[in-house]
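Sample entry follows:

:::
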Amino acid sequence: MRSEVRRRLTDVALLVVLLGLVAVGALRWVDTTAYPVVVLQTAAPFVAIGLLLLTVLTAALRRWWVLLPVGVALVVAATQVAPAFVSHASPDATRDLTVMSSNLRVGRAQPTQLMDAVRFHAVDVLVLTEVTPSALEGLRREGADSYFPQRAGEAEVDGYAGTMVLSRYPLREVSADLGGSPNRQPEVVVTVDGVDLRVQTAHPAAPIPGQTAEWRAGLRALQAWKERQTETGPILLVGDFNSSSAHPGFRAVADGLDDAQRTTGSGWVRTWPYAGSRLPPFVQLDHVLSRGLTVIDSGQVAMNGTDHAAVWGSYALPDAP
């Protein structure tokens, strides 16, 4: 009798855990500005890991009838996770361009490390968010002015709002600010070997309490910009999106674009949080999105002083018109 009660209690406990994981996983499809939901959506990778562990535990306990719904949930989660581990890049193509995005954490990022990463990966276009005048001065001392002779955007003493684009190639500012965010989001055109690349920087408001509606409006502004790009030329959307592929708003922005990390099958990419947090990095907030370019390679670079890892993507250009 006691063993039967224990088995039933075990079944109930397993099902409660399953329902909890499924509930959190289902939030992926809830487009809302409710702060608890926005935060829980970033836990999507842990749902897949939790379901895998639950499957192993259920099988080890030989609770076969519970294993069926657990297994079904795991398969559904796997269909969401697996594409991020499958590469659709063209690694044998000729590299024409490398683009990097780095959030400087209000100018605190270590400039020597950043410029070392820039040189190591032969970065051609660098998008900086949360850039301050002092951060620019630090980069200048490390040779940024000679490496990147072209620049657009503004540094801000406040820091959070400052966004700049540094380029080795001719650069023309189209707009000083997209709007829809308290942070500057300039739009530029970079000309590489006769090909014009339209680059929109991204830094919507962070989804902190009391600011989630503003955060969602910022993603809508980026989505609207993408939808206005009806010409056939290549485009790039680059920066700190303060959102991941688990957020419906970000997926609407990224729809039809190639996320460099996802296209190269990089798997569970984590760009935040790093320095200054007790949490280990667990979510990708920084992205390099493109259309009309061939993705060759991608990667991430963590550095001292900033809570964001930099992300980069390498591309082959289309033929010049």
Summary: The chain has a mean pLDDT of 95.
